[in-house]
Amino acid sequence: MIAEHVAFGIIAAVMVASALRVVTTRDIVHAALYLVIVLAGVAALFLLVGAEFTGITQVLIYIGAVIVLFLFGIMLTRSDFDQDEEADHRHKLPAVLTALLLLAVMIGALVDRFADVKLDANLPGGRAPQTTAQVSDELFSQYIVPFEAVSVLLLAALIGAIVIARREEGG
Amino acid sequence: MLLNEMLLLGAVLFCIGVYGVLARRNGVLVLMSIELILNAVNINLIAFGAFHDTVTGQIFALFVITVAAAEVGIGLAIVLLLYRNRRSIDLDQVDLMKG
Amino acid sequence: MLNTIIAAEPSGTAVAASGWFLENAWLIWLFPAVSFLVILLFGKRFPRGGSEVGIAAVGTSFVFGLLTAIQWISEVEGAGGEGAGGEYTLGASGLAAEGEASGGVSALTRSITWLTNGAEAIGAGIMIDGLAVMMIFVVTLVSLLVHVYSTDYVAGDRRYTHFFAFLSLFTASMLFFVTASTTLQMLVGWELVGVCSFALIGHWWEQKPNSDAALKAFFTNRVGDMGLIIGVSILFFGAGTFDVIGVNEAAINGSMSHTVTLAAALCLTAAVMSKSGQFFLHTWLPDAMAGPTPVSALIHAATMVVAGVFMVARLYGVFFEGFTIGGASVNLLALIGGLTTLVGATLAFVQNDIKRVLAYSTVSQLGYMVLALGVGAWTAALFHLFTHAFFKACLFLGSGSVSHAVHSFDMKKNMGGLRKAMPHTYRTFMIAAVALAGLPIFSGFWSKDEILVGTGGWGLLGGTGANGAYTAMLAMGMVTAALTGAYMTRVVYLTFFGEYRGHGTPHESGPRITVPLWILAGLATVAGFINFPAGFQLVPASWEEKFFHWVEPVGTSYFPAVKHATPSWSLAIVSVVVALIGIGAAYRYYFVRVGAVSPAATERPDGLTAKSSLARLGHRILVNKYYLDWLYTTVIVGFVKGPLARAAYWTNQNIIDRVVNEAGTRSVQAGNIVYHKVDQLVVDGIVNATGKISDSSGEELRRIQTGKVQQYAAIMFIAATILAGIFIIVI
């Protein structure tokens, strides 16, 4: 139990620090690399609470695919990899205020409702990890229709991205 | 581990993401911030799934990951198009919606 | 939820219907839905651009619909409706809804669990009864004819395939709507038909008026859609179910309080007003004539616009109890219907565009139906819906045929004397016009008369045993009957008589246009025969009131205790005389006096409007459509836009900007900063803002529309946060 707490604390601290760097660094490539750390942290958290399949998917899809996409996007839209002086707005205050206000409301709500609810108290004898078999059973029985819908969505997004980004013929 | 800790971490990440969406001028950086927001949501889903001892949380997180992948694809395509047309991905210059 | 399912089972002696076609009625909307996808994806590959797919699908649906209707009718007849007919015609006990008075047949319902939310299972399925069967028949038949007609009418159009795809989608949505077993499904169907209507009105969107008309239709309907969403929600919280039968039962047996029922009925009435073009939200319907004529015939005359009427009929328990229709002398529904029917009929007079005349006529006839529902004449309303679908679709398609020949819709400039050039169009148009005017034998006569009987006004003219003494509604209906005859005479004269005023030589349209016209004209003639009034001894008693037998769910637990008025000869005669007076007056003016001026004339130079200033004023009001559009765009929108925009501008200048600027620069200072802040921010801010507001005149709304996406995002996030905060504090 203690080990879990310590692990969570370390991961969370690293994630928050990296996330802050993602939204503050002036170097866009660094931002992408910090994002990798955050995403890896999320994956680690998933593994920590026993969501093994989602954790692995997180690594595969996010770090494997999405980040690569981002790096491609960065390369295609920038010729120089210098510090970007124009990464941020000059007035950051509204953004800071909005985020803080949101944070206050959310923390208020969480403390109000979940202050003394223990994640493991619910499950006597510790949590049984939710195995990949369980996930697939659910996914392909109860959630088969949303699953198919998401497949179609991905296909549509694929085609859409090609159509949007394609160079006009002869233009 | 406390459920509360996971949820708080999610809230903090969410707000950092919101800050990024609002404060960044670069289109790619805004998309990265949106990823932060989506991951914050996923943390909540997984935490509640574990809390209630059901895999539904995981399944929804998987859906979110899929949708996020689609969103990044489309988003980057739009950014690319923007760059091609304007030689810039500064969102401040995107004001065609001005009434 | 559980008790709803039990309640949905037939109670009393009502028999539950069964049969293969009834149970599988969902197939009827599945065919056009599949056809929509096929046409959309592969339509252009087909030799005829996808139209054959649409016709095949709708044709199959029509056959299925017909078989469903036959099966339903045999169920009803088999359930021993014999003998009971006379009894509930007289409305002897008036308590037929108790379930013991007659052997009514309950609707067949089949549903699956659509989604589960906590303990609440929300179902989706079909509810097949006489009403649904009748609507399926009307929708599939008119849709099929319109499909065939369209292959000629929109031939060569650049979006031919797209047009047929949307016709299919519309047909599927409408069928889905009429077979829905839950209010939630009805909501889905309702929105879907609205989207199709929007897409088809704007079919030729390259021209600005067309896309404007589409937007107007869409936005006007959004007003009513809000009413529907709120109404459905109220019913859900009142009755604890989305189930149509459950909702009706809760309203009838009083488990839903009268206040709740009334509130729901009011909200739903708003939806009826927008969708079915009721006064004062009817203004979109004439503009919707910008769409292709087959669309006007199918969507804006025969089917979609009656969705509101259908919804009232479907949830009649709610309306009947909510508005206390039984025994009152006036209620909102009847009043709106009465006003609409008058407004539509008067406005139809001053239009020169033939389709607009027909559009206002549709408004007027829809008013009739709503009036009928408002006075408790349920069967009469649905019967009028049935007959109106045929003759009005025939009129619209006829006007399309005419415009196909003369390339215009303007009666005064480009028509006249088409009687000889287009004999088929002329004859079918005449038949449908006479049916609309309500002359005996033709279908409109039977249905219109039944509505007038249902008002129960003046016992002298009959209508004994009606739900209340709706004398005002009877008067409105009578006046409209005269007006209808008159404006149809005007249309017929301007279009088919006199001398041709257009260019070129008009020719009759091809068979793909005339055959549907003749089919519809035939139905416009005979459709009235399926509901001979009882007690007139014109026909054997077993032929009387068939429509009523087949359609009205008397004796089921979900239908209120509606009383049925007894028809009378005197009322029938008076209404015919009134219609003849209208026709005669218009005939005298157009055929005799205008015709005497010159064959090409469209009005007399020394007519009434030239002589009397009062008549001129009336004419001007009518031409300006009672100034309703002006009221909406100038007065209401202007009123909302100004103050709202000023408030938003003030917030922008004084809250957002100032928080940014002032807080940024001054938060580093200490000491007297509070004084400065209060002074600078609040007092000065208000002073400055007042000045700025009075400075800025028009287009204030643009100031918050900076076009900057992230500013929108910030506003959205802040608003959501504040709402979430309020939610947390309140809960």
**Strand element count of chain B:** 0
Radius of gyration of chain A: 21 Å
Number of helical elements of chain B:
3
Summarize the main sheet of chain A. none
Name the average pLDDT of chain B. 84
CATH architecture of the domain at 26-90 in chain B: Orthogonal Bundle
**CATH fold label of the domain at 26-90 in chain B:** Helix Hairpins
What are the salient characteristics of this protein?
heterotrimer; A: 171 residues; mainly alpha; 71% helix; 0% strand; B: 99 residues; Helix Hairpins; elongated
Structure description:
The complex is a heterotrimer of chains A (171), B (99) and C (731). Chain A has helices at residues 2-24, 28-48, 52-77, 93-114, 132-139, 144-165. Chain A is mainly alpha-helical and 171 residues long. The termini of chain A are far apart. Residues 121-125 of chain A have low confidence and may be disordered. Chain B has 99 residues and is an all-alpha fold. Chain B has a domain at 26-90: Helix Hairpins (Orthogonal Bundle), CATH 1.10.287. Chain B has 3 helices and no strands. In chain B, helix 1 (3-23) runs antiparallel to helix 2 (27-51) and helix 2 runs antiparallel to helix 3. Chain B is elongated. Chain C is mostly helical and 731 residues long. Chain C has helices at residues 2-8, 20-23, 26-42, 51-78, 84-90, 130-153, 160-178, 183-201, 208-239, 244-252, 258-275, 284-287, 293-302, 307-314, 316-322, 332-347, 354-374, 378-406, 411-414, 418-421, 423-437, 443-455, 471-496, 511-526, 546-551, 569-597, 608-611, 613-623, 628-666, 673-695, 701-704, 709-730; strands spanning 15-16, 105-106, 108-117, 120-128. Helix content of chain C is 68%, strand content 3%. Chain C has 32 helices and 4 strands. In chain C, strands 1-2 form a two-stranded parallel sheet. A two-stranded antiparallel ribbon of chain C has the order 3-4. The two termini of chain C are 26 Å apart. Chain C is globular, with a radius of gyration of 28 Å.
